[in-house]
Amino acid sequence: MILVIKNDITQQQYNHILEKIKELGFIPHISKGVKKTIIGLIGEQAEKYKEIFEAMDGVEHISEIEKPFKLASREFKEENSVIKINDKVEIGGKKIVVIAGPCAVESKEQIFKISQELKKSGADLIRGGAYKPRTSPYTFQGMGEEGLKLLKEVKDTLGIGVVTEVMSIDQIEKVADCADILQIGARNVQNFDLLKEVGKIRKPILLKRGMATTIKEWLMSAEYIMSEGNYNVILCERGIRTFEDSTRFTLDLNAIPVVKSLSHLPIIVDPSHGIGIRNFVPTMAKAAIVAGADGIIVEVHHKPEEALSDGPQSILPQQFDQLMKDLRKLVEVIGRNI
Question: Measured between alpha carbons, how far is 330 from 333 in angstroms, rounded to an integer?
């Protein structure tokens, strides 16, 4: 249930509404848009208090949110959400945001060399895994805390934000101390305990779609995070598993306009995982932007043949540099910037 607040409401009336919501045992979820302010009461019992709020000064009208994902829906917030990452980067506005870096942090030399080249080419944020969820228990699992330290050193030395994955509840504090964005990987998209815990912090969360997750399920996962008070959620399409075996996954560009119609949350695309073939990654990155994505996240490695994970899908720094040049031309056509 959502309360649409009158434009001429007094502060006293507004405070009284919030106090009543809390008194009834609900958490007020507030969306201040350009045209109106909405307060959401989320819960199965909310509707039985409808008459109480209808009688309160300052409430213009009350309506139901039909979608199961309440806070993530366009009904709760009409305007696109713009997620502020730091003083330099915003995701969801007119600017296309580019996140790039190796699949995994492998050494100080590796992460610094790649990060320096990517920043020079125009990357907004650096990605790199310190903890790596792998299909096989015998493959490289990441450098762990040492990898986080290296990412923090990159951030402090180069003055560029970093994105890295958190895999378990006990890692949240350590990762949040280092990262500007905490990534929830495809395998954890329905790890509801983890989603609720990252919902209790206020750092932006990059929520990747699972390889067999429907759009509705994906948005419900975002709802778990937002229901705990963290509205700074960025969705990431990274390919779904289909019958096709010529590529690693099938990059679902259909999801971009569909999500945009259903939700106010920004969406970026990961063409590296989506197609899994180095030479096709730039093409799919550009296609994602034309389809309406707010940014891309791509894997880049200066020696992919020596990469400890995802070498075949990692583009070379010179390919990334060319991709950035192409994107600068492309965004002018669609009325955005980079």
Answer: 5
Angle (CA) 43 46 47, round 5°: 130
The DSSP call for residue 166 is -
Confidence tier at 49 by pLDDT (50, 70, 90): confident
Other CB atoms within 10 A of residue 48 CB = 10
Domain residue ranges in the chain: 2-63, 83-333
DSSP, residue by residue, 256-281: HHHHHHHBSS-EEE-HHHHH--GGGH
Closest CA to 263 of 285, 297, 237: 237
CB atoms within 10 A of CB 25: 11
The tokens for 241 are 């598993």
d(CA 98, CA 83): 14
Q: What homologous superfamily is domain 83-333 in, according to CATH?
A: Aldolase class I (3.20.20.70)
Q: What is the DSSP letter of 298?
A: E
Q: Nearest Cα to 102, choosing from 117, 112, 114?
A: 114
Determine the Cα–Cα distance for residues 243 and 262; give it in Å rounded to an integer. 27
Backbone angles phi, psi at 93, to 5 degrees: -95, -150
Give the type of residue at 153.
Answer: E
Residues 145 and 166 sit within 8 Å (Cβ to Cβ): no
| Predicted confidence (pLDDT) per residue in 117-171, tens digit | 999 999 999 999 999 777 787 787 788 999 999 999 999 999 999 999 999 999 9
State pLDDT tens for residues 51-101. Answer: 898 888 889 889 888 888 999 999 999 999 999 998 889 999 999 999 999
Q: Report residue 181: phi and psi, to 5°.
A: -130, 130
**Bridge partners, residue 206, by sequence:** 183, 234
Per CATH, which fold does 2-63 belong to?
A: Alpha-Beta Plaits (3.30.70)
Q: Kindly provide the b/e burial profile for residues 106-128, where b requires at least 16 CB atoms within 10 angstroms of the residue's own CB.
A: beeebbebbbbbbbebbbbbbbb
Q: What are phi and psi of 228, to 5 degrees?
A: -90, 0
